[in-house]
Amino acid sequence: MKIVLQSFANIKEVLGSRELEIELPPQSRLAELLAELARRFGAALDRQIRDQLTGEIVPFLILVNGKAFRSTVDLSAPLHDGDAVTIMIPFDGG
Length: 94
Known about the structure:
By secondary structure, the chain is of the alpha+beta class. It has one domain: Beta-grasp domain (Ubiquitin-like (UB roll)). It has two helices and five strands, in the order βαβαβββ. Strands 2-1-5-3-4 form a five-stranded mixed sheet. A hairpin with a 2-residue loop joins strand 3 and strand 4.
């Protein structure tokens, strides 16, 4: 199945684009999407989505077709062909 991944700020820089089409196996979940992204983009992505001391995924927001999911508890949420997924990492500003 194909999904469209949208990203901003630091994640966009790691992915090299604001929007990517990602191919995933049928019946994939958010966890499989993050695993595929980690496989493709390695340590640069890992530094954005994991606490580097504990290895735990940091809290960030994932939107699937506009519905919000939390990275730390909703990784079992299913994905479907054609879904639009947005990853929004909180960042400091000033």
